[in-house]
Amino acid sequence: MLGSPGPGSQMVEAQLNVKPDFSARVQESEQPRSQVVRFGPEQPFRLDAGVELAPFQIAYQTYGTLNPERTNAVLICHALTGDQHVANTHPVTGKPGWWETMVGPGRPIDTERYFVICANVVGGCMGTTGPSSIDPASGLPYGLGFPGVTVRDMVRAQAVLLDHLGIGMLLAVAGGSMGGMQVLQWAASYPERVFAALPIATATRHSAQNIAFHEVGRQAVMADPDWRQGRYLLEGTSPRRGLAVARMGAHITYLSDAALHRKFGRRFQDRDNPTFSFDADFQVESYLRHQGITFVERFDANSYLYLTRAMDYFDLAADYDGVLANAFKGTKTRFCVISFTSDWLFPTPESRAIVHALNAAAARVSFAEIDTDKGHDAFLLDEPELFAIVRGFLESAAAARGLAAARR
Amino acid sequence: MLGSPGPGSQMVEAQLNVKPDFSARVQESEQPRSQVVRFGPEQPFRLDAGVELAPFQIAYQTYGTLNPERTNAVLICHALTGDQHVANTHPVTGKPGWWETMVGPGRPIDTERYFVICANVVGGCMGTTGPSSIDPASGLPYGLGFPGVTVRDMVRAQAVLLDHLGIGMLLAVAGGSMGGMQVLQWAASYPERVFAALPIATATRHSAQNIAFHEVGRQAVMADPDWRQGRYLLEGTSPRRGLAVARMGAHITYLSDAALHRKFGRRFQDRDNPTFSFDADFQVESYLRHQGITFVERFDANSYLYLTRAMDYFDLAADYDGVLANAFKGTKTRFCVISFTSDWLFPTPESRAIVHALNAAAARVSFAEIDTDKGHDAFLLDEPELFAIVRGFLESAAAARGLAAARR
Predict the structure, then answer these.
(1) Whether B207 and A257 lie within 8 Å, measured CB to CB
(2) pLDDT in tens, B241-258
(3) Which domains does chain A have, with CATH numbers?
């Protein structure tokens, strides 16, 4: 399974005696266990920060077959801690892909009809160039030497990938949370390449509260002495405790109060009474600790800093004189905006603001608020109404674009 | 201002070369700059955990004068990170008392009419026995050797203080958040000593989400290597970074999304554009960092662990066969329950549950939900409607108890 490490990561391993798990981290960044397209020094990728990345690579997965007319491509944009492994076993965790309920043969995003693409975002840690990639200037991982990235950068990189794949217009682009931000950016930056857009559980800008939660997570990472000012890969340490705390805090925001109550209530762990200790006394504590611990096995701490920052910076209207409708002026893209009643991280009013702007731009838009107690994470979970809406919207888009009807 | 350190803290300083700030922490625990009552080995204080604390001390402040009939005493219960310094300059921070808008001459809780008492809770760090106090068995700070505490313990200690002060029945007991939990516990444990009760922005039990947020805070503290398994006072370190992260995260839950938006929105700090760095780019980040940094100057990390745990354990109905109304059976106390529309930590339904239980117990109860965007922290802030309700409720209670009417 494991590809041989590239020259960069071999050098790091040899020169710096990087511990095995960190060489694995660098290896997944350089030689991802997925498809990858590499651009050499002659094809730099320019970031909003004004810096060029070269070499530059994009790791991605595809599912299904591109039709001869090249009209059935669906791009999926992943969320903050997601990656390109949408619908295959994850190479690091061995777990199912993060959206297997949504994407696959016969699923709402049906890989027997559509050619599905998902790329790891720029700044990520699963094979697209990011802070754990090798900086050609030093031969060592970038760390904090990596330039800041934006949601616009993520989308521009995906456009480069589509050019490489020879895909002009996407049938649809879909994603939730940070993935939804990318969907909106896609529709604004490349309206001619997006036939249909599915932003789910998202917003056109990060709220002060959301920025605040992200900042606490970043501070937790940076407070860990093993973070080493971002140089942990070089120094053979890992800010595991800080990153786990960050994940625990973020995880609470992904669930609703009701979902936590339903799943855990105030039930004690393995006992009936309090222990008067600081062990995980309540089941909810044990659950959160598990979430923190498993996360650090698969995610790079610096990527967490860069990607949370990108979300914080996201403010689509700001690029259009503060008028959100201008981002969609003259668009022919058809939109389906989806929110969840119990999502308090990206609550329904954020989606309504998108819909209002699209209406103001005279765009074709439908909107669904799905009644669920599962919170923000609902977009990743088994939500029959979500599945039905996505399936129906895609079928309608496919029909409008002249694809053959689905076999039922 | 500074009292001379007691023998215990001198010993620690001499033997362990504790750094000045930590000897100051032990000193405030042993020789608080407030009133204090000390109980010797012959008067142990028994905790719910089944352990006896001896010696045991309670640090407290009083304001106003107890009338000859001893009928005008109002007990104030402080919240998680509050203390006895309700309405005087804080001896550590030099800032005003935490409830000076509410308590003082002519204020809603009028110290010209009422004799106001507030004690530091057991497990605290401002002079009532807690984890930074000296364990007589070792002559060193308890640290994690301190037994677990409960809200019931806090209330029982306050009852001991009232016995010492010769006060039988309180005119009123009032408090918000963890203070409100103590108010409810007071009414349940000592109904004959509580003429009127004012639980504000509170609940009869901590929700799974609230436990989850507390657990993240505790993990942030315990992840800090300078926490040293709770032995930081002995080892001359301080888990400042971990405690600051815990405070930052908690602080978000004290404010509403709307309040954060109103105060900070997405405004950048000292500039117009993103820096693409991990400095505090947004004003909200800078604000939170400030909250974290100032908190660690005045609060003990282990106290934070113990007191958050006490809140998590609080479940009033559990002591009454799961039937909340039984906690108030036959009560003659008059209640005024107050919540705030934008408080998502202790939302209005929690207060309604209190009111329903009181109704089921045929208690005298009024309820007010105050419309504000200030979130949970509203109980500490300038809220004219809150002031008017508290003033009116106390005046009515005072009249019912035969106190002379207020001079207007």
Answers:
(1) yes
(2) 999 999 999 999 999 999
(3) 7-205+322-400 (3.40.50.1820), 213-307 (1.10.1740.110)
